[in-house]
Design a protein that fits this description.
heterodimer; A: alpha+beta; Heat Shock Protein 90; five-stranded antiparallel β-sheet; 5 helices; 28% strand; B: alpha/beta; Alpha-Beta Plaits; 3-methyladenine DNA Glycosylase II, Chain A, domain 3; four-stranded parallel β-sheet; three-stranded parallel β-sheet; 15 helices; binds adenosine-5'-diphosphate; binds iron/sulfur cluster; binds magnesium ion
């Protein structure tokens, strides 16, 4: 089953709406608590990044009995050096974003730690695509 | 898994409006046949619907006072909120004495239970036996909310029984040791809310409560007022055993203050609690302790209280000040290390939001639900009896509602029917049909 969410940029106050809605869907499907926790944390971090670094974008989710797959696509500035971005504490967040409590530089780390597969492809000046996968059959 | 909740509907009074369905945090209410219906397995007894209903058609059911007569030895265990309900009253001993005059043989305070629970919780945190951030387990409505809507946070709930249950266990243990047969002892909790009624009748983490009955604070208040008015100063017994901190648990922030956790969030009001739990679920709450109470201003705002909760909060401060300088406590120790404060079993994941046991079927239902939702007006008007268009789509898929229950969908169908009728009406009988008009394949 597929779902689509549009995420507005520059809206720092309600950030996380799509993740929150998706979480509700997962609960209605009776998916295990640990899986929900891991996918929510990953998706939430990626959604925030899309808002604070890339002026929004879109999210497509797919749930099958085997896995949960989330694709976040934006037309933002892209990531110049992915290895550097992955480092804990590295952040290019704006002052405004920092003042709102974002930009600790832990988002990508958090995503990597919580999902089973993380794929990021990014083209400077064109945008970033983040793919998150969590497998369902691990939890009894 | 269905449990008997305390919040119920007064059928006569309900006018079938949509006020309550919109404010229920677990979407547990529907309007059917012009009356609100509470879904048993979804209600967490938070009392929101009791507060919003302008027809006063929702109530928290408690036990009848006559139940006292069933026991030879009657014990009152009042929630500390009771102390804040009386004008100009600072000394808890007056209220505790009045309870004895009302017919109770003994009174033990839930505040004392709170003192013990405070110490025990501190110990668990020190010994790192808990997962941070810890969520207080004091409010049963919040515990049920987590079980239903935030199952990922179940491991964060403080695994300690509630102050009410703690004091009931100590009380019974003490009295039995004094030689009173357990069957003769009736322990009655004086409650600020319905959530504590449910928690007593149907406990989550152990089999049977040591509390025999739960009385409404409102009702007890009416008994106490005339007794307190007549009570002479020399008649006041020293019965208080709980500390100011234990009493303070009734107000929001009280538990945190008592356990001296500095890195904490104290949140009251169910919507605010939901916001904080959402944050916690996203791993975005860097605190050690979350004191979460369903009612605004904590238990002082419970649906079975008499006084305005902001006034009661002011009174709580005055009581605390009074106790600091003039408080007198009873010389008796009923605490006993053989009494356990641990849970007997883990909290269950209630998963009441689940569409189907079988995930394949759940997925299929979810797909139909989403497809239907797309065709709905998405204005959450509530006239179908479901709180939102999305929950209506869910109700249709779960076969708890029909698509025509949505007036917009109904209107759409009527419009189609009308169009068909016009088309039919235009079809003239062959005798008066002229060429090119009213016929079908001409
Ligand atoms: N969608 C994105 N578009 C552009 N840059 C991004 C995006 N996501 C992450 N980045 C870059 O990677 C860095 C690290 O991201 P992250 O670990 O989430 O930390 P933070 O968001 O706190 O800065 C960001 O500061 C930003 O430079
Ligand atoms: S905050 Fe207190 S009064 Fe309100 S529901 Fe929870 S336990 Fe009951
Ligand atoms: Mg980030």
């Amino acid at each position: 089953m597929k779902m689509h969410y549009d995420v507005e940029g520059g809206e720092f106050i309600n950030v996380g709406t799509a993740s929150s809605q998706f979480k509700k869907t997962l609960k209605m499907l009776g998916i295990g608590a640990d899986i929900i926790r891991r996918i929510s944390i990953s998706m939430y971090e990626a959604e925030i990044n899309m808002v604070i670094h890339a002026n929004g974008g879109s999210i497509d989710t797919e749930i099958t009995p085997e896995r949960i797959h989330v694709v976040l696509q934006d037309q933002g500035p892209g990531i110049e050096n992915l290895d550097l971005a992955m480092k804990a504490g590295y952040s290019t967040a704006s002052r405004q974003a920092r003042e709102m409590g974002f930009g600790a530089g832990m988002g990508l780390q958090n995503m990597k730690r919580n999902c089973d597969e993380l794929q990021i492809s990014s083209v400077l000046g064109e945008g970033t695509r983040v793919e998150i996968t969590v497998y369902l059959n691990q939890e009894s | 898994m269905s449990y008997t909740h305390s919040v119920t509907l007064d059928w006569e009074k309900c006018i079938g409006c949509t006020d309550c369905i919109k404010r229920c945090p677990t979407e547990a209410i529907r309007v059917r046949n012009s009356k609100a219906e509470i879904m048993n397995d979804r209600c967490i007894d938070c009392g929101n619907c009791i507060r919003v209903c302008s027809s006063h058609a929702k109530k928290a059911t408690t036990d009848p006072i006559e139940m006292m007569a069933d026991y030879k030895y009657k014990v009152a265990i009042p929630a500390p909120t009771l102390y804040t309900q009386f004008k100009k009253l600072r000394n808890p001993n007056i209220i505790l004495t009045a309870l004895k005059k009302m017919g109770f043989d003994e009174v033990f305070e839930v505040a004392l239970g709170a003192d013990v629970v405070t110490e025990y919780s501190k110990l668990l945190v020190q010994e790192k036996k808990v997962q941070l951030p810890m969520i207080s387990s004091a409010c049963p409505a919040i515990v049920h909310l987590v079980q239903m809507r935030f199952p990922t946070l179940i491991p964060n709930i403080m695994p300690v029984i509630s102050p009410k249950e703690a004091i009931a266990r100590y009380a019974r243990n003490h009295l039995v040791k004094k030689g009173i047969p357990s069957d003769d002892i009736g322990i009655f909790f004086i409650s600020p809310c319905g959530a504590k009624v449910t928690d007593t009748r149907d406990p989550e983490v152990f089999d049977t409560s040591m509390v025999n009955g739960v009385f409404s604070m409102k009702e007890i208040y009416l008994y106490l007022v005339p007794i307190i008015r007549e009570l002479g100063e020399d008649e006041v017994e020293v019965l208080q055993m709980g500390s100011a901190n234990g009493i303070g648990w009734a107000a929001i922030g009280g538990e945190s203050t008592a356990s001296e956790v500095y890195n904490r969030v104290a949140v009251d009001g169910i919507e605010n609690v939901i916001n904080i739990l959402e944050r916690m679920e996203n791993n975005k709450l860097d605190v050690e302790f979350v004191e979460a109470l369903a009612c605004v201003n904590g238990c002082l705002g419970g649906p079975l209280t008499v006084e305005n909760s902001f006034v009661a909060t002011n009174r709580m401060l005055k009581i605390r000040k009074y106790l600091q300088f003039k408080g007198k406590t009873r010389d008796l120790n009923i605490l006993d290390s053989s009494v356990s404060l641990d849970w007997d079993r883990q909290l269950s994941n209630k998963q009441v939001m689940k569409l189907d046991e079988d995930m394949f079927k759940a997925l299929e239902k979810m797909e139909r639900m989403e497809a239907l939702y797309e065709t709905l007006p998405q204005i959450d008007c509530g006239s179908c009896g479901s709180p939102t268009c999305r929950s209506f789509a869910e109700d249709v898929v779960m076969e708890h509602a029909r698509i025509e229950d949505c007036i917009f969908m109904l209107r759409e169908q009527v419009r189609k029917m009308a169009e068909d009728m016009v088309k039919l009406a235009e079809k003239l009988p062959p005798s008066i049909r002229t060429k090119g008009k009213g016929g079908e394949d001409e």
